[in-house]
Amino acid sequence: MNTLVRIAELSWRPVLEIAVLWFILYHILLLFAGTRARQVFRGILILVFLFLLSQAAGLPTVGWLLNKLFAISVIAALIIFHPEIRQGFVRLGQQHFFATSMKEEEIDLMLTQISKATDNLCKTRVGALIAIENKDSLSAYAENGVRLDARVSPELIETVFTPNSILHDGGLVIQDGRITAAGCIFPLTDNQDLSRMFGTRHRAALGLSEQTDAVIIVVSEERHDTSVVYQERLYRDLGKEELFQKIKEFLKSTLNR
């Protein structure tokens, strides 16, 4: 009986270890998604695989060389890709582990209200910056603004971005279907290749998308158009219906939380 128990233990432990390692590596790759560091991390994993293969094949010289190369690669990656690695750990700290879920009809209602507001703002040439929380928490950015905790409505959104108001120049944060804060400061993008035609709002939207998976809406008062920024990509000149569909597409992961 004891022998059977030991055999059972030996059989499930390697499976558990492989599952844990796979889970860790998979989420590390997700943290660095869309960055140069992800490609470097993949290269390091290949070196580790080759090192283990050389050990199993009894090739000590190749193993020694790969071991030295691995150590140098890790140090070089930490130095060269420090910003991307820091960004990855910021995302890890912002992940929802016990997130509340919204029903699809609640999201549709929220997006309808937002679309009405942005359409009106666009027609009246009033700028706006709205961030909708997805999986990554926006609480840190909401804390540096003015707390509201209000229902999403076109009237409130338009009032917040009324020219010359105190909250006009900041960003508005929406979490779990409610406006939690306004006048929030978002990080500006480090992208030097961004066209000069884009102002501070677009740069703040791209900067926030580099650190979170939020869906950010930008209404340009200069160009009289509405854009959506998601995962460091900018989708310009969207109509009312296009805006609705694009945001809902990006929030699909929220529906399945």
Structural features:
2 domains; YojJ-like (1; 257 residues; alpha+beta; 10 helices
Descriptive report:
The protein has 257 residues and is of the alpha+beta class. The chain has two domains: 2-94, no CATH class; 104-255, YojJ-like (1. 56% of the residues lie in helices and 15% in strands. It has helices spanning 2-31, 36-57, 60-80, 82-94, 104-123, 139-142, 154-160, 200-211, 240-250, 252-255, and strands at residues 128-132, 146-151, 171-175, 178-184, 215-220, 225-230, 233-235. It has a seven-stranded mixed beta sheet, with helices on both faces. Strand 5 and strand 6 form a beta hairpin. Helix 2 (36-57) runs antiparallel to helix 3 (60-80) and helix 5 runs antiparallel to helix 9. The longest helix has 30 residues, at 2-31. The relative contact order is 0.11. The model has no long low-confidence stretch (mean pLDDT 78).
The CATH topology of the largest domain comes to YojJ-like (1
Rounded mean pLDDT is 78
- Tell me about the biggest sheet? 7 strands, mixed
Weakly predicted, low-confidence segments = none
Helix content: 55-70%
The CATH architecture category of the largest domain equals 3-Layer(aba) Sandwich
* Alpha plus pi helix count: 10
Structural class: alpha+beta
Number-wise, the strands total 7
What spatial form do the alpha-carbon principal axes imply?
elongated
Question: What share of the residues does DSSP label as strand, in percent?
Answer: 5-15%
- The SSE string, one letter per element, is HHHHHEHEHEEHEEEHH
Strand order of the largest sheet: 2-4-3-1-5-6-7
